Amino acid sequence: MERLTRAEEPVMHIIWSKQKVFVKDIIELLPEPKPPYNTISSLVRILETKGLVGHEAYGKTHMYYPKVSKNEYRRSIFSGMMSDYFDGSYESLMSFIVSSKDLSAEEAKKLKDIINKKDHE
Q1: Handedness of CA 7, 13, 14, 20 (dihedral sign)
Q2: Distance between CA 97 and CA 108 in Å, rounded?
Q3: What is the largest CA-CA distance in the chain?
């Protein structure tokens, strides 16, 4: 599955959150300054080409909906990231996370709890 570009990401998040939207709805939900209608229309068509979005036609207008769930997309992208950056090793991933200066003690404890819970399943 292709990664979303920076321009596509906010549009796709809106489509995931609303499930069915028109281009005008997407524009309304984007922050200021609002992009031109044609820009968002083009982005949505690109998302459709990538297989992430489908549409239903209502005359000359189209209502768009996600063909891939956010969770499916997340799983696919994470799998690629694991392979590309951590050699498929969860140990390497966890080592990277734990050594991060941004990881708080509370978050580290929550990670330990998650791992302990997994051990008891």
Answers
A1: positive
A2: 9
A3: 56
Helix ranges (DSSP H) in the chain: 8-18, 23-29, 37-49, 70-86, 90-98, 105-119
∠ CA 4-49-77, rounded to 5°:
30
Asked if 28 contacts 14 with a C-beta cutoff of 8 angstroms, the reply is no
| Contact (Cβ atoms closer than 8 angstroms) between residue 56 and residue 16 | no
How far is the C-alpha of 108 from the C-alpha of 68, rounded, in Å? 32
Q: Are 47 and 86 in contact (CB under 8 A)?
A: no
Burial of residue 93 (CB within 10 Å: 0-12, 13-18, 19+) is: middle
Position 10 pLDDT exceeds 90: yes
Predicted TM-score (pTM) above 0.85: no
